[in-house]
Amino acid sequence: MSVIGLDIGTTGCKAIVFGRQWQILGKAAREYPVLSPYADWAEQDAEQVWKLAMEALSQAVEQSRIDPPRAMALSVQGEAVIPVDREGRPLRNAILGMDTRSTAENAWLAETFDPQVLFHRTGMPMHTINTITKLLWLKRHESAAWTSATQFLLYEDYFLRRLTGKAVISHCLASRTQMYDLHTSNWATDILDRCEIDPARLAPMQSGDESVVGTLDRTIAHQIGISGEVLLVSGGHDQACAALGSGVIHPGLAMVSTGTAEVVEVAMTSPVLDERLRKGGISIYRHVIPGLYLAMTLNHSGGLSLRWFRDTLCRDKCLESSQLSVPNSRLEVEKCQSSTDNRQPTTDNRKDAYDLILADAPAGPTGLMVLPHFSGAGTPWVDVHSRGAILGMTFATTQAEIAKAILEGLTYELRANLELLRDTGIRLDELHAVGGGARNRMWLQMKADVCQIRLRVPQITEAACLGAAMLAAVGARISPDIASCVDSAVHFDRTIVPEQEQACRYDHRYRLYRKLYPALRPLHCEMSSHPD
To answer: How far apart are CA 193 and CA 365, in angstroms?
Structure first.
């Protein structure tokens, strides 16, 4: 019996059917836009996302006729909220996690609740990314939608409502909203009461040990080409599913997912709610694996920084690459959930644009310093006013040096996050690397050298879909438990260990890098307050 992992990401969805031996029987993907009608807004047509996801499901199922699927679970983007009517249809566009319009509502929360208390209760630092601020914005600014909505759903419960008739949210995804009490494993009703949010208008949570939500609606099953019964199993946040799909099921194991952004997810047996993590913007929430928790770091720029450099300052390499008819795919990534991209690098003598840019990169550390805050600073600095900077250039500086220095800056940011996690007592033994960045050997070795940690690269890079499919298999009792799924499905292509000579050289450069943000912060603050 096969199982389906359906990933609903920020800019695209992917459906993959996995066979008994975890081989991929069928897969398909679709892309959809993020809508930004105003500054700081990020919305999505949830109805369009639904239709495109059904197209992807149909195509993946068509490819897997030899082994029809019998269970499915979802991996979804976090925090996005969708007001729906009694039929589960959206009343307006989804407001996405990356939407930052709710600054005033976030400030009200900070004034109304002690941010330290909120973090200790919910594991979420104060931020406009949180679902609760988006609900407060709707209540204040769109009274018609607020009043007429039967429920306010996230993408997991929205899809389950349409697939099974029941809107159910996983504890994992609920714990990303800042409305979930980590200590009671339920909605924080006192917080909701103060915010005048009726918990009855939120989806009920997955109950106890029962992870099966229901069965796939027969009409929908027929539309996507499935004749038998399909169980829908509770899934979770895409990064948590990707952590599971990369084998992060024990304390000390962590995933680094390098896509448009770069995310670290480290597993813990209990929530570490240290004040230093709150100040560093690191969120603590429930893993998709019962009994485990995750600490999540976020670098907004990630691979997007290198893509900007390629598209803006390396057009000659893009042209050369296009003339060779090779897709620019090795480091290019579409989003955090691009950890599920399974494209393989070229194996012949042709090179993509990133290969060409980095071909003449110097061995070891460059002489440059790049502060990769091109969209502000994520964890552990959390500074929306910080900006990107490149220091140390001369007339002899080359494209390759700048490109490698961008990778170095991103990797120094990674080390800063890992150091904060370790300083608060979180165990960190090794990183499992997924996403577009996991296909570049130079960057992988750099991460091992800079962070002085072992990295392992899974064979299956479809980590989020794989993690969701594992949950489906266990929930439907096709597999006995998560551990056996990981033993069967997660194998590693290679292991990268620090090279001591380079690690020492990078350690010196990192000490200099730690001075860069504090030195530039006053200047960036002044520039933001006087833009003209």
So the answer is: 54
